[in-house]
Structure formats: C-alpha cells, structure tokens
Amino acid sequence: MRRFCLAIAAASLTACSTIDALPGPGEGASTQWLLIPAAGLTAMQTGMLTVPNITAAVSVWALYDPLAPNWDIRAAQLDERRIRFSMKHKFLHSGGAGEANQVLKRNAERFALEQGFSEYEIVSFEEGIESTRPFARRFAVAEVVMLRGRALPGL
To answer: Which H or E element spans position 144?
Structure first.
C-alpha cells in the first residue's frame, strides 16, 4: 500500500508541470525541467525517501532554518527616551557576524518612527562573543536615546 501511495504521489508531482508545445529540432530548447521528476523517481527507487531520512532532513531544516533572522533582538525601554537593545546572534548561522551595527540602526530607526521621534543617538555600543555551550554566540548591547526633531538653521 505504501509503494502504491508513493507511486501515486510521484505521478501527480510529475503531472504538475505541463508543456504547451514541444520545440522542434534546432530550436535550442532546454529539457532541464525533466530532471526534477527524474530525480524524484530515482530517489524513491533507491530507497532514499524513507521516513528516517525525511525526518532527519526536516530536523536539520528546523535547527538551521536559513530563512530565520540572524539576530534575536530585545528592546527594553529604560525611560521615555532611552532604550536598551540586547541582541544575540542565532546559534547556527551562515553569516551575519559583522552586521550587528546595521541591525541596531535599522531597529532604532524603526522604533523612533513608531514612537513619534524623528532622530536617535547611539549612546553606547558593546559587541562581543559569549562562550556558551554547545556553541559560542555573538552578542551586542546598545543604549539609544530618542530625540525630537531639531530646527534647521534659517527656517
């Protein structure tokens, strides 16, 4: 029964792509679209699509998740105008080690606009690496002061 369901699933996946017209000889058309169904069938026939393999792939994706933000950001409002940003880099990442300052500025600007301030000033900024187990994590802590707009000279 399991093989029958897999065969139906494979057949339905290969039927998802349709072709309006096959190109004639010498028209230089690519047939790379054929690789996707062929790879799926090959993986099924060789036994690579087993429940443990699929579970392992989903687990790795959930741990790594390349689409998740690289930084965990927490903002604590100290008073009406002062905010402390605490940022931690995610455990498993593929870059983003030097972007703490950019992430801070983006979030401070967003916070200023949401709260009705026109400017902000970064009063203190500390960046480093926490030696935690099993992975070391990059962190950044900053204190930001929100400012009201300043009048331009001559206006």
So the answer is: strand 137-147
| DSSP secondary structure of 65-81 | -TTS-SEEEEEEE-SSS
Q: Distances in Å between the alpha carbon of 11 and those of 7, 142, 146? A: 6, 55, 59
Provide the pLDDT for residue 23.
52
**What are the 10-residue block averages of pLDDT along the chain, 155 residues in total?**
60 52 52 64 73 75 63 90 90 69 91 90 92 82 87 43
Handedness of CA 34, 39, 45, 46 (dihedral sign): positive
Model pTM greater than 0.90?
no
What confidence score (pLDDT) does residue 83 get? 94
Three-class SS state of 25? coil
Eight-state DSSP code of residue 27:
S
Q: Which two tokens stand for residue 55?
A: 């579970």
Listed residue (33, 40, 52, 48) closest to 9, CA to CA:
40
Q: What one-letter code names the amino acid at 96?
A: G
